[in-house]
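Severity: low
Component: inverse-folding endpoint
Summary: output formatting inconsistent between runs
Steps to reproduce: submit the following structure tokens with default settings.
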């Protein structure tokens, strides 16, 4: 069944005010995402409708209605306010995908806090970098992750509260607080913080080429884009059971794993378990999932398991499939068409854009391998980086640029306004991704225009890895680049020179790998370390990663004698 919406028709006189109207938002009025994702749906008569159907990795299940979301997020919001947390303070969520994470997300917004979701898989150094930069006031975490917080707490003087949502009180340390969602009474009336359009909402950390990760600052007005793109691109309808694989530590897990679906009053199914083809198909079958938002690496893993496994399950409930995060190769689209009877629709966007900006719109013919066309209301082009002019020639590659602003574009990088300003040229927001546009207006992704590594859809910053590598006593110099990988698209590879007295070998390689895994995360861990005598540098001594990257990808390195300052500096 294709969507009733006609892409060409709605693109013609599109205006974001259509979304404002549907949401009942009036310019200058209040707009609190937490309220929009719970209370408003109850006011619209959806009190008893399931909002969250949750399944844990051990098969335990919990269901929350929209009224539960409202009452329980009120309860957490009142609790946080009672602790003395003020509007505008950063409150971090550092948990697996348990119900507390989703409900506390709404609660923090409801009390006016800025919610800072971080992957629970982060090691202590990755965690510290982000909490220190954000000046985080409180962190909500689980017993299994609190050890990482303990090890860095004395380096975080601004962190006033460590709240453990599943605590065994007898095992808590001084200055840690136990909180239990089940024991917190539902709160009927809570005075929701009267956020207006530009009030900060979510702070997502994302990686760039230079420096440590940057805090992408979203505002409550982002809802206007997230609501409508969720409705139109994910093709959400009232009876849908929607499943988004993404963790809320990543922008997909908040824009489309919380805000988009819930503001539309859609039932979400959440599985807090890692990849397993059988588990995933079984989850779809059991909950009669209709719309599924996934990612290319996951699809490639499913492909590897084969079509026979698919046939063991009844997946006929599925109606619409979308993908995000990395290039969706044509083979993956064709495979899903054959195996699941539906093509995956690619969606392209970034932490900074806050919402899907280029996509295979439902009902629009899918060209396997292409990302599709700009979402109505998003003016996009590819720019020639030398002239700064839009390229009008079909097939010619340039950098994807988007005309600013639109409701969900970030408003700044936390404590780094200069870094934010550098993302713009003549009113265009520069994505730092390269693509071409064909004669039908479809975008074809080519690659990133910077040194950020995309592994399985997760962006990791080379600088963060290199800084961590340099902390290992054996490492004198380090460079990190992406190397090709058949499933994850890229994995991290490190080039390292050793300090005096150290000799290379497999033991040292493994030791350094584990060192990074513990400090940062399994994703940031190099899958290979090459010990070298020296690293390619510019005349002023800056390491040139792109030479190493080209080597890994079998691409021409270019004339090394002309190596000048890296023009990408500052990205
Ligand atoms: C890449 C993710 C190709 C791209 C929501 C982008 C993609 C970065 C696609 C943003 C796609 C995302 N095809 N590449 N459909 N979607 N990317 O900030 O390089 O984690 O700039 O946000 O992922 O990653 P981020």
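Observed output (run 2 of 3):
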């Amino acid at each position: 069944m294709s969507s009733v919406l006609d892409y060409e028709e709605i693109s013609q006189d599109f205006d974001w005010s259509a979304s404002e109207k549907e949401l009942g938002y009036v310019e200058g009025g209040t707009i609190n995402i937490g309220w929009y994702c719970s209370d408003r749906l109850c006011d619209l008569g959806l009190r008893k409708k399931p909002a969250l159907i949750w399944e844990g990795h051990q098969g335990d299940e919990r269901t929350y209605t929209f009224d539960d979301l409202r009452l329980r997020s009120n309860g957490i919001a009142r609790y946080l306010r009672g602790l003395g947390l003020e509007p505008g303070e950063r409150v971090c969520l550092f948990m697996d995908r348990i119900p507390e994470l989703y409900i506390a997300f709404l609660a923090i917004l409801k009390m006016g806090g800025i919610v800072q979701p971080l992957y629970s898989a982060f090691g202590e150094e990755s965690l510290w970098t982000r909490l220190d930069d954000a000046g985080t006031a409180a962190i909500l975490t689980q017993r299994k992750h609190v050890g990482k917080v303990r090890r860095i707490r004395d380096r975080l003087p601004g962190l006033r509260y460590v709240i453990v949502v599943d605590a065994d009180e007898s095992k808590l340390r001084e200055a840690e607080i136990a909180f239990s969602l089940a024991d917190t009474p539902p709160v009927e009336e809570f005075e929701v913080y009267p956020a207006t359009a530009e009030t900060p909402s979510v702070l997502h950390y994302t990686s760039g080429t230079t420096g440590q990760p940057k805090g992408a600052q979203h505002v409550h007005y982002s809802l206007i884009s997230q609501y409508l793109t969720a409705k139109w691109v994910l093709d959400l309808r009232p009876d849908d059971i929607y499943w988004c694989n993404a963790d809320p530590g990543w922008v997909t897990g908040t824009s489309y794993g919380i805000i988009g679906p819930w503001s539309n009053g859609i039932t979400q199914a959440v599985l807090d378990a890692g990849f397993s083809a059988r588990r995933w198909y079984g989850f779809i079958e059991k909950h009669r999932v209709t719309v599924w938002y996934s990612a290319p690496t996951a699809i490639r893993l499913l492909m590897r398991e084969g079509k026979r496994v698919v046939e063991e399950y009844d997946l006929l409930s599925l109606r619409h499939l979308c993908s995000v995060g990395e290039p969706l190769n044509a083979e993956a689209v064709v495979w899903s068409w054959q195996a699941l009877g539906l093509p995956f629709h690619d969606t392209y966007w970034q932490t900074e854009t806050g919402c899907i900006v280029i996509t295979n719109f439902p009902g629009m013919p899918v060209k396997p391998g292409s990302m599709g066309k700009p979402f109505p209301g998003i003016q996009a082009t590819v720019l020639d980086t030398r002239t700064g002019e839009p390229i009008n020639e079909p097939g010619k590659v340039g950098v994807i640029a988007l005309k600013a602003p639109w409701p969900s574009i970030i408003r700044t990088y936390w404590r780094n306004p200069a870094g934010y300003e550098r993302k713009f040229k003549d009113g265009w927001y520069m994505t730092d991704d390269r693509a071409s546009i064909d004669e039908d207006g479809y975008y074809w992704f080519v690659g990133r225009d910077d040194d950020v590594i995309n592994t399985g859809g997760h962006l990791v910053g080379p600088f963060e890895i290199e800084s961590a590598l340099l902390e290992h006593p054996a490492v004198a110099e380090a460079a990190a680049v992406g190397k090709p990988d058949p499933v994850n698209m890229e994995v991290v590879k490190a080039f390292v020179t050793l300090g005096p007295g150290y000799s290379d070998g497999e033991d040292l390689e493994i030791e350094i790998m584990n060192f990074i895994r513990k400090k940062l995360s399994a994703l940031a861990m190099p899958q290979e370390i090459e010990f070298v005598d020296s690293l390619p540098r510019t005349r002023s001594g800056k390491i040139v990663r792109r030479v190493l990257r080209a080597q890994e990808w079998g691409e021409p390195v270019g004339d090394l004698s002309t190596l000048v300052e890296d023009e990408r500096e500052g990205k």
